[in-house]
Amino acid sequence: MYAFNYQRPADLPGIERALAAGGQALAGGQTLIASLKLRLAQPDALVDLGAVGELRGICRDGDALVIGAMTRHADVAAHAEVRSLIPALAHLAGGIGDQQVRAMGTMGGSLANNDPAACYPSAVLALGATIRTNRRRLAADDFFRGVYSTALEPGELITAVSFPIPRRAAYAKFLQRASRFALIGVFVADTGKGVRVAVTGGGSGVFRHAGLEAALTASFRPEAVEGVAIDASQLSKDLHATAEYRAQLIRVQTQRAVQQAHG
Questions:
Q1: Is 122 within a domain?
Q2: Residue 161: CA atoms inside 13 Å, Cβ hemisphere, count?
Q3: Full-prediction pTM beyond 0.85?
Q4: At 38, which CATH number?
Q5: pLDDT per residue over 93-133, tens digit each?
Q6: What CATH number should be reported for the domain holding residue 183?
Q7: Mind listing the pLDDT tens digit for each residue in 158-197?
Q8: Positive or negative CA dihedral for 63, 69, 70, 76?
Q9: Burial bucket for residue 37 (CB in 10 Å: 0-12, 13-18, 19+)
C-alpha cells in the first residue's frame, strides 16, 4: 500500500465534489482494496461512499424493485421482498463469493467494476434493469461495454438499480471454485414480453444470447435449447476451461435455470 487521502463525505453533493477533484470511489472495496495492495490502482484520494444512507436500501416502486447502489450482497439475499418478488436475484446474491465478500460487497460496486465473470451483470441485463446514476438513467442494454468497461463517465456514480419484476426467472452458475466467480453463469428471465437470457463468464463481458432467447420465448422448457447453436469461437479459453467446454456449459446452465424457474 502507499499514502493516499481518505475522504468519507456525508452526502451525495460531497461525493460529487470529491470525485470531481479526482478522487476514486470506494464502495465495498472487494476489488479496489486488492488492486491497491498490488499497486494496480494508485489514486491520490479514496472517496468512501458508505456514509450516505440514500445510496442504500430496497423498496418497491410500482412494478419494479429499486435497490440502492451501496446495498450489500447479503442484504439483497436476505431481503423478504426480493425473495418474494425476484427470488432469482436473491439466489444470485446469496451465491456471490464467500461470507465476507457478501457482507462487504455492494451491487453498485460490482456493476461499476464490471468483471467479465461477475454475477450481478447477468441479472441486470436479463431482467432489463435500469441503472440510475447521479446524472441520468441507463438501460442495461446500453450500460455494459466489455472487460471492466461501462457507459459511466468520469465523476458519474451509480445511485440505484431498478429491476422490473418478471413473471419468472432463475440463475444457474457453474462456479470456479477458487475464486467463486462464474466459470459460466446464465440468468433467464420470462418478462411477459419474451424471454431474456444473459451469460456471464464466457468472454469479454456479460452478453445476451439471441438464439436461446428465441427458443425459450417459443417454448419455455429445458429441452427447447437442445438444438440452439452456441458459437465457441466467441468465448474465452484459459487454464480453467476451453471455449468449447464453456459453450456446452452455457447450454447446460440455461437448461438448469429454466428448470429452476419452473419450480
A1: no
A2: 25
A3: yes
A4: 3.30.43.10
A5: 999 999 999 999 999 999 999 999 999 999 999 999 999 99
A6: 3.30.390.50
A7: 999 999 999 999 999 998 888 888 999 999 999 989 999 9
A8: positive
A9: exposed
